[in-house]
């Protein structure tokens, strides 16, 4: 485990990482994509709690629950909430996404957010470290199980925001719809101006009407190869 505490930006949230849940750009971008109105949210597979931290930091009217199967990562997530004085609006539950029906009442949250493993188990070479492999592959929860959990936790009109790889977009949209979660917003992310997308962000609504909005592509760098203005905004580097 990395015991060093870092600031995500000057005077911003302070954060420490669990070994199996390193901080990634995708989580920071997802928190920005999911920002908006909400009173009670849950992060499924919260790792070290970065999504909860960012959402709580930007929305004083929001409370967040993190659900994490790893006891070590859950402990670090609780410490991160405490470090930032957010225990009054945040909690971490140690448990399995596949057993949400035993942990929460249906419709308990108006926002569900997740940065899940991107690859089905057995789809490629596994990471040699078991903890990293679990973060990369769907060993503890499949995309179908994740969407089913989100549908159970949301009331009609509730939002589910997640990030995944573009090559799984068709599967993702079909799985959401099959579980009663209508895709409403979609945004692609590219490292460079002329590169293919490497991430896709999707917001779905429980019981929503059909109609998908494609948002402008998020470019991480500009034509000069420097950080884009949007990335500077997200990371408070204006």
Task: Note down, in words, how this protein is organized.
The protein is α/β, with parallel strands linked by helices. 29% of the residues lie in helices and 22% in strands. It has 8 helices and 11 strands. Strand 3, helix 2 and strand 4 form a beta-alpha-beta unit. Helix 1 runs parallel beside helix 2. The longest helix is centred in the N-terminal third of the chain and has 13 residues. The mean pLDDT is 91.
Shape: globular
Radius of gyration (Å) = 17 Å
Number of distinct beta strands: 11
What is the arithmetic mean of pLDDT? Answer: 91
Largest sheet, in brief, is: 9 strands, mixed
Query: Could you give the order of the helices and strands?
Result: EEHEHEHEHEHHEHEEEEH
Strand residue content: 15-25%
Question: What is the SS-derived class?
Answer: alpha/beta
Unreliably modeled segments: none
Number of helices: 8
State the helicity in percent bands: 25-40%
**Separation of termini?**
31 Å
Quick overview of this protein structure:
This protein is of the alpha/beta class and 238 residues long. It has helices at residues 25-34, 50-58, 71-83, 100-103, 130-136, 143-153, 169-178, 229-234, and strands at 6-7, 14-15, 40-44, 63-68, 90-94, 111-114, 159-164, 181-190, 199-206, 213-214, 218-219.
Defining key terms:
238 residues, alpha/beta, nine-stranded mixed sheet, two-stranded antiparallel ribbon, 22% strand, globular
How do the helices and strands line up, and which of them pair or pack?
Blueprint lengths: L5 E2 L6 E2 L9 H10 L5 E5 L5 H9 L4 E6 L2 H13 L6 E5 L5 H4 L7 E4 L15 H7 L6 H11 L5 E6 L4 H10 L2 E10 L8 E8 L6 E2 L3 E2 L9 H6 L4
Parallel strand pairs: 3-4, 3-6, 4-5, 6-7, 8-10, 8-11
Antiparallel strand pairs: 1-2, 7-9, 8-9
Helix pairs in contact: 1-2
């Amino acid at each position: 485990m990395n015991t060093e505490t870092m600031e995500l930006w000057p005077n911003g949230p302070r954060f420490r990482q669990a070994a199996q849940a390193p901080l990634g750009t995708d989580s920071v971008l997802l928190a920005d994509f999911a920002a908006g109105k909400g009173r009670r949210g849950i992060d499924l597979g919260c790792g070290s709690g970065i999504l909860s931290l960012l959402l709580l930091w930007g929305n004083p009217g929001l409370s967040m629950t993190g659900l994490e199967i790893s006891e070590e990562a859950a402990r670090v997530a609780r410490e991160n909430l405490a470090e930032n004085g957010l225990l009054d609006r945040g909690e971490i539950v140690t448990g399995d996404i596949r057993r949400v029906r035993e942990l929460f009442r249906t419709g308990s949250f108006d926002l569900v957010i997740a940065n899940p493993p991107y690859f089905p188990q057995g789809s490629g070479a596994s990471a040699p470290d078991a903890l990293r492999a679990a973060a990369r592959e769907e060993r503890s929860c499949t995309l179908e199980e994740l969407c089913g959990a989100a549908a159970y936790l949301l009331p009609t009109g509730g939002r589910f925001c997640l990030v995944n790889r573009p090559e799984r977009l068709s599967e993702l949209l079909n799985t959401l719809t099959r579980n009663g979660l209508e895709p409403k917003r979609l945004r692609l992310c590219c490292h460079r101006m002329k590169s293919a997308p490497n991430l896709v962000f999707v917001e779905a609504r429980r019981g929503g009407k059909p109609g998908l909005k494609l948002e402008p592509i998020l470019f991480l760098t500009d034509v000069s190869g420097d950080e884009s203005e949007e990335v500077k905004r997200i990371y408070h580097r204006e």
